[in-house]
Amino acid sequence: MRWVSHEKPAVFYSFVVGFMGPAIVVAAPPFRRLIGDDPRPEIPMTYPIPKGPRVIPEGYDD
Questions:
Q1: Positive or negative, the Cα torsion across 31, 32, 36, 41?
Q2: What span, in angstroms and rounded, lies between the C-alpha atoms of 17 and 58?
Q3: Whole-angstrom Cα distance, residue 15 to residue 22?
Q4: How far is it, in rounded angstroms, from Cα 26 to Cα 15?
Q5: What is the pTM of this model?
Q6: pLDDT tens-digit series, residues 7-41
Q7: Which residues, including other chains, have CB under 8 Å from residue 12's CB and lie 6 or more apart?
Q8: CA dist., res. 9 & res. 55, Å (int)
């Protein structure tokens, strides 16, 4: 590994970064929970409809 890191650094670090991917997939969610990064609230898909009768503004007629 030492020889490859000196003679062919692009290949060596490509493998290092490539092998870090699966490890991050496994290690990142518990670490994020540990530091307090909770799941995001769901994005609403509809606009809330107000309760009660609709107030129609006056004075803006054509």
A1: negative
A2: 65
A3: 12
A4: 18
A5: 0.46
A6: 999 999 999 999 999 999 999 989 998 998 888 88
A7: 1, 4, 5
A8: 70
